[in-house]
Design brief:
mainly alpha, globular, LysE family translocator, LeuE-type
Length: 214
């Protein structure tokens, strides 16, 4: 693989990572309240991304095509997880709307522990297996049919580090005091909107899994 091919893969991945999706919505929503928790969410997302990148380069897409029941199971379970998270976000937003936090410190405390934020980020990312096919579409035309261990490692690292850059920037920018002050009053509505987004995406993923069994 040439440096130019690797640059193309990284460029496509940067665009894909920054595109609106469950991961971006969750990090953004969390960053409006707490930089520490946003970083914990991003860390969870990035662990999931590393897993998917590794599986993709090692041929996970081919395996899912060969054993479609595995994809169906991932979609059904993942869809339910996303819907459950969405309902929790809507409920939290509704409670905060009726009993809004008094200040930024209270808003941050309502996010729970950093460990909980990390798990939310990880579960959000691994709940949506379509990332395997998105990554495959990006790298398949450029990756050798049988890449050497060194080439595979370079591609995985390049994909992961470019995603790290996107989420590090996102969590840093949105969690600045200036942005947080502007979005503080809208916090409950951001939660409700984010929850609605998760419910819609989760329902779509779930339905795709169910329809695949018919």
């Amino acid at each position: 693989m040439s440096p130019g091919d690797l640059a193309v893969i990284v460029g496509l991945n940067l665009v894909g990572a920054a595109s609106p999706g469950p991961d971006v919505v969750l990090v953004t929503r969390t960053a409006t309240r707490s930089r520490r928790h946003a970083r914990a969410v991003a860390a969870g997302v990035l662990v999931g991304v590393l897993l998917w990148c590794t599986l993709t380069v090692l041929g996970a897409a081919a395996m899912l095509h060969a054993f479609p029941w595995m994809l169906t199971a991932l979609q059904v379970v993942g869809g339910l997880v996303l819907v459950a998270m969405g309902l929790a976000n809507v409920a939290q937003g509704w409670r905060d709307r009726r009993n809004p936090p008094m200040d930024a410190a209270e808003a941050e405390s309502r996010l729970g522990t950093l460990r909980r934020s990390f798990v939310r980020g990880l579960s959000t990312n691994v709940s949506n297996p379509k990332i395997v096919f998105a990554l495959t579409a990006m790298i398949a035309p450029l990756l050798p049919a049988n890449p050497s261990p060194a080439t595979a490692a370079v591609v995985i690292l390049a994909l992961w580090l470019s995603t790290v850059a996107v989420f590090a920037l996102l969590s840093q920018v949105v969690s600045t005091r200036r942005v947080q002050r502007r979005l503080f009053a809208a916090g409950p509505y951001i939660d409700i909107g984010a929850g609605g987004f998760f419910i819609a995406v989760g329902a779509l993923v779930f339905l795709r899994g169910i329809l695949a069994t018919m």
